[in-house]
Amino acid sequence: MKRILLLFAFVGITTLTSCDGDQGPQGPRGPSGIESEVFELQNVNFQLNGDNEYTIFRNLTPFINDADNILIYRLAGTIDAQTPIWQLIPRTLFLDEGELDYDFDFSPIDFTIYAGGTFNIATTPQFINNQTFRIVIIPGYFSKGSTLDYNDYGAVIKAFDINDSNITVLNK
Fold first, then answer.
1. Per-run averaged pLDDT (10 residues), the chain, 172 residues
2. Which of 7, 42, 128, 158 is deepest in the core (most CB within 10 A)?
3. If DSSP states are collapsed to H, E and C, what string results for the chain?
4. Contact 129, 10 (CB under 8 A)
């Protein structure tokens, strides 16, 4: 009896695994649109808005996909003329006057960068005027992101195969 059941199981498994049916229809194309890309805001000033917040607002063109993400880096200084120091925001700076925070939010069509602090940040114009930011768009399908150090601008550019030698400036 055991041999007959074993024979039926073997024949059944062999038959089912060797079945081949008609190929189904072509699946939908993946998302079209933007791939990894970098934009830059050069020498921009934060503006005090009606909610008493210092902000920089820009539209994104082209729009990004809903699943995509944005990283924003602030130019914190330079080592030499060819070596900028980029710091990922959100970021808190600890100054003699108190804490100064940079943060941002975004949607598929725009982004806003915020500056705020535990003191009147208008007293430190070097942190709200003539600022430079890099905006890096990360595609939502990127699966290796969990091991990537997003604080390292160079590592992000390399991981997403971004050529940042000719960056679009969004100062308008």
1. 58 56 52 68 93 91 83 94 92 96 94 95 96 90 67 86 79 64
2. 128
3. CHHHHHHHHHHHHHHHHCCCCCCCCCCCCCCCCCCCEEEEEEEECCEECCCCCEEEEEECCCCCCCCCEEEEEEEEEEEECCEEEEEEECEEEEECCEEEEEEEEECCCEEEEEEEECCCHHHCHHHCCCEEEEEEEECCCCCCHHHCCCCCHHHHHHHCCCCCCCCEECCC
4. no
